[in-house]
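Write out this protein's structure.
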Amino acid sequence: MEDLTPPKDSLDPIEIASRDEIAALQLERLKWSLAHAYQNVPHYKASFDAAGVHPDDLRSLDDLAKFPFTVKTDLRDNYPFGMFAVPRDQVARVHASSGTTGQPTVVGYTARDLDVWATVVARCLRASGLKPGDILHNAYGYGLFTGGLGIHLGADKLGLTTVPISGGMTNRQVRLIEDFGATGITVTPSYALSIIDEYAAQGRDPRLSPLKVGIFGAEPWTNAMRQEIEEAFDMHAVDIYGLSEVMGPGVANECVETKDGLHIWEDHFYPEVIDPETGRVLPDGELGELVFTSLTKEAFPVIRYRTRDLTRLMPGTARSMRRMEKVTGRSDDMMILRGVNVFPTQIEEQLMLVPALAPHFQVELNRVEHRDEMRVKVETLPDTVEQGEAAARDLAARIKASVGVTVKVDVAAPGGVARSQGKAVRIVDNRPKA
């Protein structure tokens, strides 16, 4: 793979500033953000008052722990514009969740917010190894989802040539990557696997594609998946992180030269990791739930937003800003099977160790005679169909040994597991609701 390390003189000065400089900037901006939210969002005024705190109580970064958390239900309860901190006519863009699991969550941006968003996404793309003039194949969904348009903003800022392909029509994805000579691709990791399958279906070798780097996010994925994608395409695969409530894609990104965790753009987003049960702030290095406070957002400030993503904070390496470990899962995606906590990424890690199986899978949870049961549906590769039963036994044994639960593995023929056109549906829970 080509060395794509960006030159140091292309970085924003704050990316390589001292920790003292970063902390001083964070404190200044955090004071502004707390006051902005308190003065302009009724929810935050009521929340702070109920907790007995005022923005003036923040005198150090550690004082943020005194302030109450924000959770997704707060956003839903204030649908559609109740969490906005500027008049509606100053909102330049609105995005929203699908609302498939309840009331949609709505987020807004001023013109300045959009410029900040473009700036941090451009940092991500540059950290991934892209440079002005490169062709970016953007296969994230466009529309109310923040992925496609958020990446597009940053690509414009960096000076890339963007192909706004969005998701779906996988045969066309492959054709345009090849015809247009895309050097970078932004897409969910599960859909990247579908694109690899399509290369094979078209009789093309993905290792001969023009792609040099893939930037993958919107769902947890493992280092084993990274290796699978990198070997398939002979390109770098890096992780990008974001969520609409905090900004969208562009909150953090891996640096292509190290791939050792995602540097958080701490001049715009202040991270904490907490114990998900007690809410206690954990020291850097300990695994817990990621919490973010926005430092510069005008239209939609968020104060101590609980992401439900599980990770840990680590010192910076290629940049001064702290890194977050690849997300291992979400506290609300965790499956509890007979008292054992199980995450989809743990299943994926073991699946990638079985050579006869393709990297596609889905977990099904059932209740049989008052007992929870987990079935893992996988598929063979085209040339390993006859090894299916042995591979199923191998995977079940690996999951039992590493995770500690007994599962049933169903092996389908190639193409037997539902493909993702965006975010993968990893868990199908058929158990009766309480």
